[in-house]
Specification:
The protein has 3 domains: 154 residues, Orthogonal Bundle (Helix Hairpins); 154 residues, Jelly Rolls; 68 residues, Ubiquitin-like (UB roll), CATH 3.10.20. α2 runs antiparallel to α3 and α3 packs across α4. Strands 1-8-3-6 form a 4-stranded antiparallel beta sheet. It contains 14 helices and 12 strands. It is elongated and about 110 Å long. The N and C termini lie far apart (112 Å). By secondary structure, it is of the alpha+beta class.
Length: 438
């Protein structure tokens, strides 16, 4: 009976043992639901097991077809190995597994190929099966990668959803615990009052960004700036719209986008995450509302901001044309007058419109405004080699002519607006108007 079981007609009853595979499948299902084990690695191990089982089963069955053929030499392995029935089983197994893997990966070297009709039929069935197995494997691998990315966004949504369901007082306490220390470490709010920090932190929103994602795009309207809680981001700029230039790396407690918000100019840099990063966002409008009533805190913030600008690298300053000249003008003014005036002027935050223009000042008592002067006619355009100069508007037209002569090396006699209209009085000008001295 033993011989009949292994070599006789009832040999195929051994296939009933494959029912044990159902237990293996159930085992992996339990592991995938067990929080003590990584879902990613459990799923990956299951996929690897399916592939190994398919390769092994196909190789063994292919060898079985050759061994039970009436003419051993007229088989796929008989043409490569003479008298293979009397050779080592491991040698034959190596040949069969080699054929199975080559066929599964669709390489098909052709050194081992079907010879008789039975082998050709099995080859066709196996290749059709491989189409489904390949699709199954690729689909599951894609699902694992997407699952990891979706989990990052789900983390932020879940945290925000939980916070929204809590009372405002509890939300504020949680925000103070999570983000207060980070805000206090940031350079812009160094030394400000406890009340201002509490007001800012209480309304902050945390966001998560996976690696290689742009948080801020160059030249976009400045609606928000960010404080990095954890992770790392790169500060980038683009030359001629395509060439990417790395400027610096930002870490925890560093800020991004504040230059565009405070100066109310298009964002000068692109900010891209290096790895999974958590940031807190402060909106332009909310920042303006918090700062305007705080006179002393406003002076501290502007002092911190100007100190930060003076410490920027040369390659960063070159990306903001007016910044170098603005810092030079600040150094030329008396220290006492400069401190009080600049605290008011730089805190002048305007709501950005879709065209990127700014409105009038909302701070009471503001008399000095900034304008951009050009040394050519407005019809000649503003190309990259004819960038304007950001200056403080003088008290008279004569002073403006003198300033333009100093900046451009030639004296003009007429001041025109961008639409060609002539400027007769300075008190009709607005913040960031473009003036053409010809």
């Amino acid at each position: 009976f033993y011989r009949a079981w292994h070599d006789g007609e009832i040999f195929f009853l051994n296939l009933l043992r494959l029912w044990r595979l159902w237990r293996v499948s159930e085992f992996f299902k339990r592991l995938e639901k067990d929080t003590r084990f990584s879902y990613f690695w459990t799923r990956l191990l299951k996929l690897l097991g399916v592939i190994v089982f398919a390769v092994h089963s196909a190789g063994c069955f292919y060898y079985w077809l050759a061994r039970h053929h009436k003419t051993p030499a007229n088989t796929w392995i008989g043409t490569a190995v003479e008298d293979f029935k009397h050779r080592s089983v491991w040698l034959c197994y190596t040949y069969s597994i080699y054929w199975s893997i080559v066929t599964l990966t669709t390489v098909g070297y052709g050194d081992l190929h079907a010879v008789n009709t039975g082998e050709k039929i099995f080859n066709m069935i196996y290749m059709l099966f491989n189409i489904g197995l390949t699709a199954y494997t690729i689909g599951n691998m894609t699902n694992l990668v997407v699952h990891a990315a979706v989990r990052t966004f789900a983390m932020s949504y879940k945290q925000e959803e939980v916070l929204q369901d809590l009372p405002k007082a509890i939300r504020s306490s949680i925000a103070q615990h999570l983000f207060r220390r980070t805000v206090e470490k940031s350079y812009l709010f160094n030394g400000v009052s406890e009340d201002l920090v509490s007001q800012l932190v209480s309304d902050m929103k945390a966001e998560y960004f996976p690696p290689k994602v742009e948080i801020i795009l160059q030249n976009e309207i400045p609606t928000d700036f960010y404080i990095l809680v954890s992770g790392a981001v790169d500060l980038l700029t683009y030359k001629n719209g395509t060439e990417q230039v790395f400027l610096s790396k930002l870490g925890a407690a560093d800020m991004a986008g504040e230059i565009g918000v405070i100066f109310n100019i298009p964002q000068p840099f692109t900010v891209r995450t290096k790895r999974l990063s958590q940031v807190v966002r402060i909106s332009h409008h909310h920042f303006k509302q918090m700062i305007q009533p705080q006179g002393e805190d406003g002076k501290i913030i502007i002092a911190n901001f100007m100190k930060y600008l003076q410490g920027l690298k040369e390659d960063v300053l070159q990306e903001i044309p007016f910044l170098t000249e603005l810092l030079a003008d600040q150094n030329q003014k008396p220290t006492e007058q400069n401190e009080e005036q600049q605290n008011r002027e730089t805190l002048e935050s305007q709501d950005a419109n879709p065209e990127g223009r700014t409105g009038t000042s909302s701070l009471p008592g503001e008399s000095t405004i900034r304008v951009i002067i050009h040394g050519h006619h407005p019809s000649e355009g503003t190309s990259s080699d004819r960038l304007g100069k950001l200056v403080y508007l003088p008290d008279s037209l004569q002073d403006l002519f003198n300033l333009a002569e100093k900046k451009f090396g030639k004296r003009g006699s007429t001041i025109l607006m961008a639409d060609g209209s002539k400027v007769e009085e300075l008190n009709v000008l607005r913040e960031n108007d473009h003036l053409f001295v010809v």
